[in-house]
Structures are given as structure tokens and as C-alpha cells.
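User: Hey, quick favor. My workstation is busy. Could you predict this chain's structure for me?
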Amino acid sequence: MSVDIVRVGRDGWGFVEGGDARPLVPWGCNYYDPFTGWAPHLWEQFDEARVRGHYAQMRSIGVNTVRIFSTLMATLSGPDQPNADGLAKIARMLDIAAEHGIHVILSGPGGWEGSPSWWHEVAPLDNFVAPELLRAQAAAWKGLASALTGHPALFAWELINEPAAPWKPSPALREAWVTWRSGHAPQAPSDLPSPQPPLSLDWSWDLQQFREHLADQYVRIMTDAIRGKDTTHLVTMGLHQKSAPFDWYPPDPYAAFNPHRLAPMLDYISVHYYPHHIFHPNIYRDPFDTEEGMTETLLHGRAVARYVHVPGKPVVMEECGWYGGGPVSFADREQRSLTEAQQTAWCTRLVEATKGDVSGWLFWPYRDTPSSLDPSRRSGLFDAEGRLKDWGSAFKRLAPVITGAPPVRQAGTASMPAVLRDLATDPQKIKAFRADYLAAFKAGKVVDFPPR
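Assistant: No problem, here it is.
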């Protein structure tokens, strides 16, 4: 069970590893220790023996890739000072992964273990715009990249998990708006437009372009920091499905991390997808109510996966899945109870539906998490006691089929240009766009979404 440096294959769609270019189809899960609280404190409570047992469990069912979160507390001792102890733990985690033949995607420093005091001195989401916070994140990446360059188990650096560009006014954001406006949109209002909750139709095109600019700037700074220290590993980022401009709807904002703009700076595209009926029952169907609801939810997933594709860049659905084995709490209320068989049905059907649209799948999470405040409570491949769930058994059966056949992207048979200016500003046009692509998919067409 050896692992080696991963790179994008010559076809621009799959992955290969090692000097002999062995095909690698990412098939795995998101990993954290489920018994360190919620949110999990993997690095503060790092237990090597327990982690080693978890990796053995994952490998026993065919996991070849996991995604793990790094944190601000584990990577930084100060705004510009890497945390040597935290970096050593992360390196040890990669060593354990290598021993079990598992690759690791390491997601960028976040706040799962809390945030340092100096981080709280600025407004929320200013991490995308405040110069001192951008410098701190770049310092974290430089420390990680220096410590782990060339490590054979590291699949990729992931810049950040599910980013959404800021829009709520803060001094730093207002200052950035003035600078951007002077060079790009002098006709725009002199002060930053400010949609207020509940988010209405007041999403101007100028505001959305400004937010995409901030996203571009963020990705450029972080990729430069990484590649200045490590050129051996791939770079990606964990896009929320709201990065597709037809998958948002007030009160949720369009994420404004546009894969078509960001792709030149990344080696491949990562995207997340879950059923959205919990948040927007008025516009999304519950996949567990009717077969029609299941079909439409799967087709929405196909649309998101096909939209984020850029030629030459593989797409990995690196966070997906759903829960089973009881009820969960989510969106401030208890959700319906689903069986393990229903969890299996959703996960297996998602793989079947998107096998011509993505290059690999990582499910959420490794194991049920009793203290979780969201579907992670019952979304695992294993239950909280370590028993292999029905979905885990299905995952194990699928593993040799998936990993033994490098994916082939299904060629589009219909083109539906995505007019970003319309979709990023007008929810009614989003509804119409979704209805059109659902009709096309149901008619047997394979839809591509070229940006316009």
C-alpha cells in the first residue's frame, strides 16, 4: 500500500501518481476524530493511537483519499509565526496516512479549534480583505508548504473550505470598494452597496463583480504563498455549491468564488454538494419524498458539477453524502428521521448520476459524530461505536469498481450559456434557468454551462 506524489493526468480529467503514472481515482471521505467535541479539535486532542485505528478502519473499506482540516491554532503561534508543534502533528498525520496507503487533501487553516485573539480584532469575513489577516494566512501556508513539500501522502493543498466573498460593510471592505471602484466601475455608488437581511433583490452587478475580484485576489495571494515554498503538490479549493450562480437564492448569497475565473490559478476544481431542500423547501424538492424529488435533486448536483468544470481541470466532489439511522438537528430545528438504507440510496445514486461529471468523490464524514449539531451526527460510513453502516458496506463494494476504472467525462450534447450578470443579480432568472436545465436533463441531454 504505497502512496506517491499526485498530479493531473495528460487527459486533463483524471489523476495519476508516481513516476509510472498509476491512475488514481479519489474515493474516500472527510476525516476528523469524532470524539474530540463539536466542532472537532483534532490537533488540540491529537491521539496518535486512536487516529491510527481510524485509518485502519477507513483503509479496510477501500478509502484511498481523505480530506482533513487544518486550523489557525495548529498552524500559527502568532500573526506571522508558524506553530512548530502543530505542524509536527500534521506531518505525523500524513505519515500515518502513508503507512495505510491513503492520500490526504489538507484544507486551509480555519476556526474549528477557535481563533487567536488577534484574529477577532477585525470584522467577520475580513479574512478575505484585511491586509493583516491576508498576511497571516499566507504565513500559515508558507509554514505548511515548507514543512510538507514532497511528502508522498499529500494529495493537494486546499486553500479554504466553502468560501463566500464578503459583502457586509466593514472599514477594510469599504476601503477595498473605493480602490476597486476607481479602477473598474466609476459609475458605481461611492459607498459600498449593502444588501441587508433578509436579503432582497438588491444584489447589484457592480457589487457581485467586486466580490469576485476579492475572491480572485485571495486565491492569488494564497497560491503564491504555497508555490513559493512547494511546487510538488496540487492546489485546489473547496467550493460551496453556491459558487454555481444558479444554486443560490435569498437569504443565501451567491458565493462569488467563480471557478471559471479561479481555474487558471488552481490545478483542479473541488466542489461540494448536498440536498438543499432543508434551506429552501419552496424551490427545492425533498429527495426522500418522491422519486421525482430524488431525480431533480440529483440533476441539480449534475448541473453544479458540470458548471464548475473548466477544460484541463479535473473536478472532485470532495464533500457530499447525507445522513441515515435516525433524525438530526440542522438549520435550527430537528430534521426527519432517515434510515440507513435511505442514506445508502442517496449516496450510491449520486455517484451513479455524476460518474460522467466528476473525477472522484469524498463523502462526509468518516464516522457518525454524537456531539454534532448538524447531519454529521448520522452521516458516517461507520456509526459512533465503530460499526460499519449500511452505507459503509455499499462504499466498500463500490471501491474496486470505482478505483479500478479511471473516469471518463461525458461529452455535452446541449449548451446552456450561464449569463452571470443575470444569475448573480436576479433570483427569478435563477428559477427559470433551473427549470430549463432540469427539462433538458430529463429529456436525456447532457448539459454544458459555458460562462457568458
